[in-house]
Amino acid sequence: MYWTLELASYLSDAPWPANKDELIDYAIRTGAPLEVVENLQAIEEEDSEIYETIQEIWPDYPSDEDYLWNEDEY
Question: Cα-flanking dihedrals φ and ψ of residue 21, to 5°?
C-alpha cells in the first residue's frame, strides 16, 4: 500500500466519518483511480472501525497547519 498526495486527494471530500467499506464505495462512485481502491482494501480493519479524517488512514496527509503563509496578510 502506498499513498501519494494525488491519490489521497481523491478522499479529501469523502463523507467523514466513514468506515472502510463506505470509503471504498465513495472512491468507486467518484471515479478515483484503481490505486485508491486497492489502498483502501489493503487497510487492516478491526470490527468496522470508523475513520474520522484522512489523517487516520495516511498520517502524512498535509493539514492546513502545514502551510506557512499567514492568511491575515492577504
Answer: -65, -40
